[in-house]
Amino acid sequence: MSKTLTFEEKLARLNVIVTELESGKLSLDASLTLFEEGNALSKELAAELNAAKLKIDELQAK
């Protein structure tokens, strides 16, 4: 992807990927490619959520 996506854009893309994979209409190669993209997005989203949780925890501790 050429630009840095926001959290919301990444989540929307992940939802599109899941829908496409669940459709069962993709070839194996296309499915694997989308799965890899989705897996990477999932890891990025989890890291962003974890960072946000840490920030919230810090703010609540003050």
Please describe what this structure looks like:
With 62 residues, this protein is mainly α. The chain has one domain (7-61). It has two helices and no strands. The chain has helices spanning 7-23, 28-61.
Question: Which labels suit this protein?
Answer:
62 residues; mainly alpha; 82% helix; elongated
Quick synopsis:
82% of the residues lie in helices and 0% in strands. The protein has 62 residues and is mainly α.
Task: Let me know the average pLDDT.
Answer: 95
Q: Between the first and last Cα atoms, what is the distance in angstroms?
A: 38 Å
State the helix count: 2
Give the uncertain stretches in residue-range form: none
Largest pleated sheet:
none
Helix-strand pattern: HH
Structural class by SSE content:
mainly alpha
The domain tally reads 1
The amount of beta strand, in percent, is: under 5%
Tell me the quaternary state. single chain
Count every beta strand, where a strand is a DSSP E run of 2 or more residues. Answer: 0
Q: Give the CA-based shape.
A: elongated
Instruction: Indicate the radius of gyration in whole angstroms.
Output: 15 Å
Fraction of residues in helix? over 70%
Architecture blueprint of SSEs:
Layout: H1 7-23, H2 28-61
Helix pairs in contact: 1-2
